[in-house]
């Protein structure tokens, strides 16, 4: 357990922090300063960590089941303040998973460079691979099309107004729906394929670097 915490601590902290900061930055870009005024447009991880969702729940689940699930403190966004609320909602939501995808690519590049420079220590290799895995998992999980997850907000943005309004009404129950789907392993049919797609895209993007350093 101590070894796994040491390996995953830095990648997970980065994954959570940049995910939430990306939401705040894009919301500000499209006209809503709520998150910025609340001090959430920052790379300070302490600002984004939720004691219950980021520490207590994941630790308890890991110790009892070996599975880890948690969440960070949600970034406050007033969608009505966006210049085009319905359209810009999708961009704000997509910013978080997009940041995770970029971080996964950077961790993959780091792993490739470690191999190229013949770094023999096991720890940095494990951290690099943990960085790819943590960010790809966050990317896939947050794109689940159930509000209040980012995927649910993207779907709400894309639906016609009447359907979007009805779909958004499930948001208060979204967390419990996700927990139920996790318990019955239904989400494997979404998360697994999305992770495969993300890993495939990462390998394609990293191919030029791999080719150059060989």
What structural class do helix, strand and pairing data support?
mainly alpha
- Specify the helix fraction band: over 70%
Following the backbone from N to C, one meets helices and strands in this order, namely: HHHHHHHHHH
Radius of gyration (Å): 18 Å
What amount of the residues lies in strands? under 5%
User: What's the number of domains?
Assistant: 1
Mean pLDDT: 91
Unreliable segments (pLDDT under 50, ≥5 consecutive)?
Answer: none
Shape: globular
Q: Number of helical runs? A: 10
Counting DSSP E segments of at least 2 residues, the number of strands comes to: 0
Structure description:
The chain contains ten helices and no strands. It is an all-alpha fold and 214 residues long. The protein has one domain. The radius of gyration is 18 Å and the shape is globular.
Keywords:
214 residues, 10 helices, mainly alpha
Give the helix/strand layout:
Blueprint: H1 2-29, H2 34-37, H3 45-48, H4 51-65, H5 85-116, H6 122-142, H7 150-158, H8 161-168, H9 171-183, H10 188-213
Helix pairs in contact: 1-5, 1-6, 5-6, 5-7, 5-10, 6-10, 7-8
In short, what is this structure?
The protein is mostly helical and 214 residues long. Helices cover 75% and strands 0% of the residues. It is globular, with a radius of gyration of 18 Å.
């Amino acid at each position: 357990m101590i070894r796994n915490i040491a390996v995953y601590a830095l990648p997970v902290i980065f994954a959570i922090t940049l995910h939430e900061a990306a939401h705040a930055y894009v919301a500000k870009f499209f006209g809503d300063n709520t998150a910025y005024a609340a001090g959430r447009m920052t790379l300070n991880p302490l600002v984004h960590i939720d004691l219950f969702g980021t520490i207590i729940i994941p630790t308890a689940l890991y110790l009892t089941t070996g599975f880890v699930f948690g969440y960070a403190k949600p970034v406050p966004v007033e969608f009505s303040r966006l210049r085009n609320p319905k359209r810009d909602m999708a961009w704000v939501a997509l910013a978080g998973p997009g940041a995770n995808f970029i971080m996964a690519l950077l961790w993959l590049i780091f792993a490739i460079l470690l191999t190229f420079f013949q770094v023999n220590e096991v720890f940095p290799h494990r951290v690099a691979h943990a960085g790819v895995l943590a960010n790809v998992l966050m990317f896939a999980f947050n794109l689940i099309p159930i509000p209040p997850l980012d995927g649910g907000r993207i779907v709400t943005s894309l639906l016609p107004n009447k359907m979007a309004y009805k779909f958004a009404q499930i948001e208060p129950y979204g967390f419990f729906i996700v927990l139920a789907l996790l318990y019955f392993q239904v989400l494997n049919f979404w998360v697994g394929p999305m992770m495969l797609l993300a890993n495939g895209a990462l390998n394609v993007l990293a191919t030029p670097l791999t080719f150059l350093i060989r």
